[in-house]
């Protein structure tokens, strides 16, 4: 595979050499030759450059072969040249000066400007959203199952206690009946004439004991009834809690879906605004991010040209009407150029590594508003 790539790079470089010899004999307009020589000196392939700068390989080839017809609008092409020259560690201004002689400012490319660099993709892919939703549903299901097991175990304990108390009460009743019959037999006797004589004093004691046992039985029944009522209350609470948890789960799922739809709608709106706003105005602002940074750019008409998180090594070229209002997150990792003039933003960077400023140009000078 590596040999195949080397052969491809060799054929591309050969094509670049032949194209450069045929199309760029006049070094005054040959900006591509500087890029080719610098790239070969550093032993980089076109694929290496494309992958690092996130610029399509056919754009790299068009730059190196001076193929102006294959390049985008001059505003975007200058941004690519500046990024490519910086990567190769050669003079950006020298390459741009040759390009400006070869391509006048009023030259319009046959290709439409690109609003997004290659490789810049939506991080909210369907797979990521599906995995996130599945994890949320699994967590909720685990919580509901654990709660059900806990309350089920508690209900089983209450049921065992009730069965034990009912058994004790049944045993007490049986013992009471047996004792009562025995006492009656002991307190009764027959005379010589076969008359039954019953000792009533024993009955009073027996009656008192019976009343005590009946009261104890009633107390036990009351306790059992209270326990049954408590179990019913717990069961009702468990049922209600399950219903509430199900409603909360459905509500949360609906809320998540609504949030995802809102994010996607906002991203779509931002993208359409950037495309629309990039087609108006005469001034140019270029944003370079070494590390990922949040960027918002508005022009003099308060039209939002950019509102997005830019990943590592991103380049954005925006066209509008100055002055531009710019807000940066992770400002120390960002670089701003307006109308080919470098902007020194150090004095506007706060301790939180953010920056807010408004800029325009006047006679090759940057003006802060």
TrEMBL record:
Question: Which residue ranges have biased composition labelled Polar residues?
Answer: 1-13
Claim: Chloroplast is one of the keywords in the record: no
Region annotated Disordered sits at 1-24
From the UniProt record, which GO molecular function terms apply?
Answer: DNA binding
User: Is Ion transport among this UniProt entry's keywords?
Assistant: no
Q: Which residues cross the membrane?
A: 130-151
Q: Where is the composition biased (Basic and acidic residues)?
A: 14-24
Which keywords fit this entry according to its UniProt record?
Membrane, Transmembrane, Transmembrane helix
- Where's the Cytoskeleton protein RodZ-like C-terminal domain? 290-358
Name it. Answer: Cytoskeleton protein RodZ
Organism name: hydrothermal vent metagenome
The root-end lineage is: unclassified sequences, metagenomes, ecological metagenomes
